[in-house]
Design brief:
The structure holds two protein chains of two kinds. Chain A is of the alpha/beta class. Chain A contains four helices and five strands; from the N terminus they run E-E-H-E-H-E-H-E-H. In chain B, the strands form five sheets. Chain B has a six-stranded antiparallel β-sheet, with no helix packed on it. Chain B has a six-stranded antiparallel β-sheet with strand order 12-15-16-17-13-14, with helices on both faces. Classes of the chains: A alpha/beta, B alpha+beta.
């Protein structure tokens, strides 16, 4: 798994590439936690390159959402493929997150926040 | 042997004498230069002094501002003679003597300021290792190193090792203060050991600049006079302590840098020389290997402790699972859980409560101790709530409420729970974010159960979960599992998938519960081969036999 980070108008974009499983989710957790600790408050996680996510990956996103106060104006997910969306759906997580089709839409949603 | 004696002069800086025996001497601003001139009008590699059979020469290395010999620009190379003046930027290199005899000032040491260069030397540590063997003092150095090597061969703790290295450094190099800094797990340098002479006072603050040069660039550093070295002019920490002369060497090997050893001295007591630096580099090199070995041994020991703890945790966890499901005339029960290499978070449970069978299969997000503990709590809650809850929905809501409370780490567990009426075969089910089980019907059809699903447990407090009812016919089976089954991968990374599971169930056909569970594991094993699985794998089967002809009547 790789994480490509960029910053757009105060929004931190984490584009994840590869599998988010119980082994790699620690890396994602550390990267996101570090950004939150550094004061970052608006995040987009781009799933365009994600081929698989396990429940360990869902936990990381849930934790981030909790740390950001559960606000849907703080964390937006985007570009979820079918397989990834299914994992979110199965665990009942789709209603918990703000989800957009593309990175541009996700950033636009947070830029107005 | 024709030695080149230079006096290096620069306005505002005390003049310094240097002597060279052989080789190429690069003069420039680069830290790799042999004579470093910290002057921005000087090019990084500005000029070169070199010896040929017939004497010493100077050559300009294509510098931006040129090199002057006795006031004339040097083009190509020009021979050097005693009394010649080479000018580079603001600095004058005066050839004080050529040949065996050093100039008077150097031999007598009458002028203390001229026999010590104010220029610091930073050289790749590897280079110093090479010259160490050729030096005239090689024998005494070899003796010291030999001693150190012998001492290092004995079993020794890291603390003892570091102290011993400092002891040796003190005995031979007589610093005021010596310290070994090692890189911690967080990448930051920390002081692992120090030793100071009784004369030394105050705390020693290490110049970050020096630490970077040594541990990042791998340079061995000799600071002859920190006070007049411009690179340390801002290092108030070094200067405030009254320390002026420093030698530092990296503790590094082919695998990287572990830290550094640095010796400090007040120049009134002692000024370090290049020979001292070479000696320290040799000492550091010998020490590095041993420190590395000790670190590896410590890691291995820590891993063993952790492995033991994890093994114990797994044992406790497995002990919580029912090795033998309850026996009941109306149902056949079987379950098996194969944990992934580390402690995982799958669980299952069966409870008979009068005429009802309660069952659950769950999967905690993540692995390791945190997941195992959360799993233990979830299972305990299931056992605690089933006798109390009037309905399955209440049991699951109770578990969820407890798991969600103060759950800062955002742990959660997906669970499929059910309650089977033994007399009628009617099953009430609640799915909390888990994969839906398969229903193996009487006519041989294998289909995934359709049921309303709620969110995983532990995520949102105060949540009611939708209930679905199905009725199992006699001989029909519910096959519950965790996603470890579908996520099982083969050597090429392909997953077993739901399709693999469905095909396997269709091929197995109607079987007793235990044979069905064994059959699924057999198919997954055959698919995965030797590939280690990342997730726990759990399969449970509930086969309804129907109410026995005698006795019980349906409610």
């Amino acid at each position: 798994m790789d994480i490509v980070q960029e910053k757009r108008q105060g929004v931190a974009v984490f584009a994840v590439v590869g599998r988010i499983d119980s082994t790699t989710s620690d890396t994602l957790e550390r990267a996101l936690t570090r950004a939150i600790d550094a004061g970052q408050r608006r995040f987009v996680v781009d799933f365009d390159g994600v081929t698989y996510i396990s429940s360990a990956g869902l936990r990381v996103l849930l934790m981030v959402a909790k740390r950001l106060g559960g606000g849907r104006d703080a964390l937006v997910l985007c570009s979820l493929g079918d397989a990834v969306r299914q994992v979110f759906d199965l665990a009942g997580f789709l209603p918990l997150f703000a989800i957009e089709r593309s990175r541009d839409l996700a950033c636009a949603r947070l830029a107005g926040a | 042997m024709a030695r080149l004696h230079l006096q290096i002069e620069r306005v505002g800086v005390a003049p310094a004498g240097r002597m060279f025996e052989a080789g190429d001497i690069v003069v420039g601003r680069s830290e790799k230069a042999d004579i470093i001139l910290d002057d921005y009008s000087v090019s990084r590699r500005h000029a070169r002094l070199f010896r040929r059979d017939d004497g010493w020469f100077v050559e300009d290395l294509g510098s931006r501002n040129g090199t002057l010999l006795n006031g004339r620009a040097v083009s190509g190379s020009a021979p050097l003679g005693a009394g010649d003046i080479v000018r580079i930027g603001d600095t004058t290199l005066r050839v004080t003597a050529l040949g065996e005899k050093p100039p008077t000032a150097d031999t007598t040491g009458a002028d203390a300021t001229t026999d010590q260069s104010v220029f610091s030397v930073l050289r790749p540590a590897s280079e110093l290792m090479q010259v160490a063997g050729t030096d005239a003092r090689a024998s005494s150095r070899l003796r010291l190193l030999n001693e150190v090597h012998r001492a290092l061969a004995a079993p020794i703790s890291r603390e003892e090792l570091l102290q011993m290295i400092l002891d040796r450094a003190f005995a031979v190099l007589q610093p005021e203060h010596a310290a070994i800094h090692l890189r911690g797990a967080d990448g930051q340098l920390y002081q692992a050991a120090e030793r100071r002479s009784p004369r030394s006072s105050g705390t020693l603050l290490v110049s970050r600049r020096l630490a970077d040069e040594v541990t990042v660039k791998g340079a061995a550093a000799l600071v002859l006079d920190a006070q007049s070295d411009e690179r340390f002019a801002t290092a108030a920490s070094v200067l405030a302590s009254g320390i002026r002369s420093i030698v530092a060497a990296p503790l590094s090997d082919a695998d990287g840098c572990l830290g550094m050893i640095a010796l400090y001295s007040n120049i009134h007591t002692r000024r370090f020389s290049e020979q001292d630096l070479e000696l320290l580099v040799s000492l550091a090199s010998a020490a590095t290997m041993r420190i590395r070995n000790i670190a590896l041994a410590e890691q291995a020991a820590e891993r063993r402790v952790l492995d033991r703890e994890l093994a114990l945790a797994r044992e406790i966890q497995m002990g919580m699972l029912r090795r033998r499901p309850p026996e009941q005339a109306e149902v056949e029960l079987a379950a098996h859980l194969v944990p992934a290499r580390s402690v995982g978070g799958d669980f299952y449970d069966f409870l008979i409560d009068r005429d009802r069978l309660w069952f659950v299969v769950g999967d905690v997000a993540g692995k390791g101790m945190a997941a195992a503990l959360f799993m233990a709590v979830a299972q305990t809650l299931f056992r605690a709530f089933t006798p109390l809850g009037a309905s399955l929905a209440e049991v699951v809501a109770g578990m969820n409420r407890e798991l969600a409370r103060d759950n800062d780490r955002a742990m959660f567990v997906t669970a499929f729970a059910g309650c089977l009426n033994l007399a009628t075969g009617r099953v009430e089910i609640v799915n909390a974010g888990h994969i839906l089980p398969y229903w193996l019907q009487a006519d041989g059809t294998v289909r995934q159960l359709q049921a309303a699903s709620g969110i995983a447990l532990g995520v949102v407090e105060d949540r009611m979960f939708p209930t679905t009812n199905v009725t199992l016919g006699v001989g029909e089976t519910l096959l519950l599992y965790t996603d470890g089954v579908c996520d099982a991968v083969d050597a090429r990374g392909a997953a077993f998938g739901n399709r693999g599971l469905e095909r396997c169930l269709a091929e197995l056909g109607p079987l007793p519960a235990s044979e069905l569970v064994a059959g699924v594991f057999g198919a997954v094993d055959a698919f995965a081969g030797d590939t280690a699985q990342e997730d726990d794998i759990t399969v449970a089967a509930i086969r309804y036999r129907g109410a026995p002809p005698s006795g019980h009547s349906p409610d």
